[in-house]
Specification:
It contains 2 helices and 14 strands; from the N terminus they run αββββββββββββαββ. The chain has helices spanning 2-22, 189-204, and strands spanning 40-53, 56-69, 78-81, 85-90, 96-102, 104-108, 112-123, 128-137, 142-145, 149-152, 157-166, 172-183, 224-229, 239-241.
């Protein structure tokens, strides 16, 4: 009986070994990367750096965080600024010709900026642009937005949608716009003086035919701002500034 039990146990052990040795192996392999996938290559905090273009210093960037993701299949890396971006661009004389600020910024394939959130842009002429979304193509040298935009210049204020501009933000188009322009009202001072003198002569002339001395004060009204409204022109861009 003892030998029989040992023989049975040995047979079971051999059968189990044969079973596990013949079963196929399972390989744990991750899925291949798709075109839309990218890996985080660099994460930087407290960014304050200068960037050159063709050997010339052109940009100054300040950001709380800067993430760089590797591109796939030969594509350029993507820059992400999730916690905001402040950027200044310099001209050939190292003067600031463009100021850009946004809550979130993305640089796609090293040529297309996507600015979102509270986007503020100021050009060299002092015009300030406020919007929630702005695209900037460095290859085509143009900017555009289809969100609401507000433009404040030293002479006027504009509001509208479907914005398109050159890279310097000095020539732009806005559709469905509403603007406020200051208009000075001109007065004929000489006419007012003559009218006031005639009134004083009639009021101050006494019965003896003599005239009392009078003081004439010419009061000019201050210029004030009026609003000028434009009718919406869907599908047609209206040049507002050259």
């Amino acid at each position: 009986m003892e030998l029989r039990r040992i023989f049975i146990l040995g047979s079971l052990a051999i059968a189990l070994c044969i079973t596990f040795s013949c079963s196929p192996r399972t390989e744990h392999v991750a899925e291949a990367l798709n075109d839309s996938d990218s890996l985080l290559f660099m994460h930087v905090k407290g960014v304050n750096t200068f960037i050159s273009d063709s050997g010339v210093m052109r940009y100054h960037m300040v950001a709380e965080e800067w993430d760089i993701y590797n591109g796939t299949e030969g594509k350029a890396p993507t820059w992400n600024f999730y916690k905001g971006l402040l950027m200044e661009r310099y001209d050939e004389n190292f003067h600031i010709d463009l100021f850009v600020q946004s809550d979130t910024a993305y640089l796609h394939e090293q040529h297309l900026w996507e600015l979102r959130g509270r986007v503020v842009v100021r050009n060299i002429q002092g015009d300030v642009f406020h919007t929630e979304e702005l695209f900037w193509d460095l290859n085509k040298h143009e900017m555009w937005s289809y969100k609401y935009i507000r433009i404040i210049t030293p002479e006027r204020e504009l509001e509208g949608t479907e914005f398109h501009s050159n890279e310097q933000m000095t020539r732009y188009y806005v559709n469905n716009s509403i603007g406020a322009f200051p208009i000075e009202e001109k007065e004929n001072v000489n006419e007012n003086e003559n009218q006031n003198e005639n009134q004083n002569e009639n009021q101050n002339e006494n019965g003896n035919g003599t005239k009392k001395d009078s003081v004439v004060i010419n009061e000019q009204r201050k210029p004030h701002a009026k609003q000028m409204r434009f009718l919406p022109a869907p599908g047609k861009r209206i040049p507002l500034k050259e």
